[in-house]
Amino acid sequence: MTSLHADEAFLGHYHLSHDPFAPRVPGFKFFPAQRKPVLGQLHHLARYSQLLLVVTGPLGSGKTLLRQALVASTNKQSVQSVVVSARGAGDAAGVLRQVAQALDVANAEPNAILKQVVQLGLTGQEVYLLVDDAEQLDESALEALLALAAGTPEGRPHVFLFGESSLIADLEQISGDQELFHVIELQPYEEEETREYLAQRLEGAGAGIELFSAAQISDIHESSDGWPGNINQVARDAMIEAMIASRSAVKRPKMGFTMPKKHVLAISAVVVVAVAAAWLIPGRNKAPTTTGAPTEQAQLPLGKPTPNVEFANSGQPTNLPMVGQPVMRGPLAEEAGGISEGDDGVPVEGSSATPPTVTTTAPPAGVPAGTPATPVAPAAPVAPVAKPTPAPTVATAKPAAPVAKPAPAPAPAAKPAEKPAATVAKAGAAGSSWYSSQPTGNFVVQILGTSSEANAQAFVKEQGGQYRYFKKVLNGKPLYVITYGSFPSRAAADSAIKALPAKVQAGKPWPRTVASVQQELAATR
């Protein structure tokens, strides 16, 4: 799969008719656990109570689904439902404008709206006014809604507010000692209710609860704290994680040795040549002494150049040792200082990769190493020939010193190899510390989760900007979660989602609090 956002691949892998954990699904069925009693209570209070009704719960607790169920379960012949969103229009003018438009009232004021409510009551119709995201209402909007809920002796609408618990403090400040509203607080699902909820969602998409094991269901319940919205997200992440793992397992056998055949042949040739060179080079000690100029280099037999073999991803060809290449050995090497040889007698890289400027040979058999060459026979004609012999021996020791300088060269070569590992470790630590440094009330946008840290790093590197990732544990395995930005409010995070690239939006990113991320990081540690 080339993109983690490919919904078609997700649906095809599990043979689903639609995403079972999307916010809006075809053929929606209201899940009764922990919510049916609340639904009945709302209908009862709407009929007999004169108070404004408030339904509270954290993000993902099912407030919007409960509001949908309330509208769906009312008698359309006797109830006109007006649904208002406080998102982006949290002041009195914005809320009253939406209500007036729905009731076909020209003047968006409380008195004009109440007159229309009374007129509808005379025809046998009640008005339900339902406000989503009510925690975003300001003081003026709350006062206007309390005035509508109080109504007139002739009639009043039934006002329902669905929002987070911060809404209660604002209402209490406005109400003072008066009892103007009634609060219903939603409760999370128990583990068995979580299992039934998952089964209903999967059944609606053409699958069954057998997609999850008992251990996975327990993990989903624990990670979501039993809130429906969180259950949807965690369950979907778990299914995508399992899909990626299964596809990786199928592809893994195909990812064997894929080096091109020509590279294999080149490496084989290099090995053969190196072995031959290691075996034959010691025999060069028996070659006759050369007494040329110190700056001249010895030539290879037959004038053949040193072969160059190119490896994949290598910028420079590598010179291979050949038979006949002069090697510095014995006392001369020791006197030069710092020149070392490999175990097979071939000079290691950096010591004699470049042929020495002066060559020498091993002394005749039976003469200790380091003894100046002397005439073998005492015959008189041979004596004059032996005199120049000690001169090259002394001269060869001095020029050998510059050859020792390249010896430290291999040491710095190991340093760059250490930098990437340090960089990666630093990046991982920086990601966790960044989340820990953010205010707990801020929001981030969760993009996706993947089991491969390399995939997460590649995605963040490709997108750049404000994309980051952190590590958590899901079902006992690491999951790398990619997020975007840091926003002071949910509204700002929602606006940022709309501005994301289309392929990122296809994965249905969602806002979540920094506090929830910090909790997962703490649990991972």
UniProtKB/TrEMBL annotation:
<dbReference type="InterPro" id="IPR027417">
    <property type="entry name" value="P-loop_NTPase"/>
</dbReference>
<protein>
    <submittedName>
        <fullName>Cell division protein</fullName>
    </submittedName>
</protein>
<dbReference type="InterPro" id="IPR007730">
    <property type="entry name" value="SPOR-like_dom"/>
</dbReference>
<dbReference type="InterPro" id="IPR052026">
    <property type="entry name" value="ExeA_AAA_ATPase_DNA-bind"/>
</dbReference>
<dbReference type="GO" id="GO:0051301">
    <property type="term" value="P:cell division"/>
</dbReference>
<dbReference type="InterPro" id="IPR036680">
    <property type="entry name" value="SPOR-like_sf"/>
</dbReference>
<dbReference type="Pfam" id="PF05036">
    <property type="entry name" value="SPOR"/>
</dbReference>
<dbReference type="GO" id="GO:0042834">
    <property type="term" value="F:peptidoglycan binding"/>
</dbReference>
<keyword id="KW-1133">Transmembrane helix</keyword>
<dbReference type="InterPro" id="IPR049945">
    <property type="entry name" value="AAA_22"/>
</dbReference>
<dbReference type="GO" id="GO:0016887">
    <property type="term" value="F:ATP hydrolysis activity"/>
</dbReference>
<feature type="compositionally biased region" description="Low complexity">
    <location>
        <begin position="353"/>
        <end position="373"/>
    </location>
</feature>
<feature type="transmembrane region" description="Helical">
    <location>
        <begin position="264"/>
        <end position="281"/>
    </location>
</feature>
<dbReference type="Pfam" id="PF13401">
    <property type="entry name" value="AAA_22"/>
</dbReference>
<keyword id="KW-0812">Transmembrane</keyword>
<keyword id="KW-0131">Cell cycle</keyword>
<feature type="region of interest" description="Disordered">
    <location>
        <begin position="284"/>
        <end position="373"/>
    </location>
</feature>
<keyword id="KW-0132">Cell division</keyword>
<feature type="compositionally biased region" description="Polar residues">
    <location>
        <begin position="287"/>
        <end position="298"/>
    </location>
</feature>
<feature type="domain" description="SPOR">
    <location>
        <begin position="437"/>
        <end position="513"/>
    </location>
</feature>
<keyword id="KW-0472">Membrane</keyword>
